[in-house]
Design a protein that fits this description.
InterPro entries: DUF1045 (IPR009389). This is Phosphonate metabolism protein. Pfam families: DUF1045 (PF06299). The protein is of the alpha+beta class and about 240 residues long. The protein has a single domain (about 5-240), classed as Alpha-Beta Complex (Cyclic Phosphodiesterase, Chain: A), CATH 3.90.1140.10. The strands form four sheets. It has a five-stranded antiparallel sheet. A three-stranded antiparallel sheet has the order 6-7-8, covered by helices on one side. Strands 2-3 form a two-stranded antiparallel sheet. It is built from eight helices and twelve strands. The mean pLDDT is about 95.
């Protein structure tokens, strides 16, 4: 039975945002393949993007989790299908910001957009939690709870992640944690490369399951679940089928 080490439910960027983002990170999360860099590319870019490249271009809805004993990948697949069909498509504007020491595409200061995204994220976290195995002490320790606020500690204890519900911040990570000078240089390069190519709003029409096949493996896309009921498979799709060879 093909069972991935961890599963995650993400929002996969679409359109120009996806094409720009995966080229920036240097990896196609659909296939898991590295993308070649131009010879004249800034040599620091691979180091800047090492951490987000591992997880693939995404915005977190439900962070990586191991399947709870007694549940199945097929059951998770059915639950995500049902959840996706209950959603309606919408669009979001994105803006580049520094967040906790890294660069990310974030939502603008628009209460309506935040509420729409937050409602989707809350639903994904809550409805799919029966499939999440409880966090181990080592997993909790890796989140450095002593450095978190009390609300974040409570979320970590109950939901396995400190940034959900009231502590959730939508973002699409574009760099790892950088020093102030590197952060400025990376932001300058990002803005120069993007130009006006990313001026439009990004459609939100699906949620996506990413998988980590084995510990330390990079995450790859398993399956996209359209809000219209359509499903599109990618490289990790076999990890959603308990009966696959």
């Amino acid at each position: 039975m093909p069972l991935a080490y961890r599963y995650a439910v993400y929002l996969a960027p679409a359109g120009a945002w996806r094409e720009f983002g995966r080229a920036w990170l240097g990896r196609d999360e659909e296939s898991g393949q590295r993308l070649p860099r131009a010879r004249e590319e800034d040599p620091r870019l691979d180091a800047w993007t090492d951490a987000p490249r591992h997880y693939g271009l995404h915005a977190t809805l439900k962070p990586p989790f191991r399947l709870r004993p007694g549940t199945t990948a097929t059951g998770l697949d059915e639950a995500v299908r049902a959840l996706a069909r209950m959603q309606k498509p919408f669009h979001i504007a994105l803006t580049l910001r520094a967040l906790r020491g890294f660069l990310a595409w974030c939502l603008p200061d628009d209460a309506g957009t935040h509420a729409r995204v937050r409602a989707l994220a809350d639903r994904v976290v809550r409805d799919l939690d029966p499939y999440r195995a409880p966090s181990t002490p080592a997993e909790i320790a890796r989140r450095r709870p002593e450095q978190l606020t009390l609300p974040q500690q409570r979320m970590l204890a109950e939901w396995g992640y400190p940034y959900v519900f009231d502590t959730y911040t939508f973002h699409i990570t574009l760099t790892g944690n950088l020093g102030a000078t590197e952060l400025d240089h990376a932001e300058e390069l990002l803005r120069a490369r993007a130009g006006r190519a990313l001026d439009g709003a990004m459609p939100v029409e699906a949620i996506t399951v990413y998988v980590q096949p084995r510990p330390d493996d990079p995450f790859i896309v398993a399956r996209h679940y359209g809000f219209d009921g359509t499903v599109r498979d990618a490289a990790g799709a076999r990890y959603m089928d308990d009966d696959a060879p």
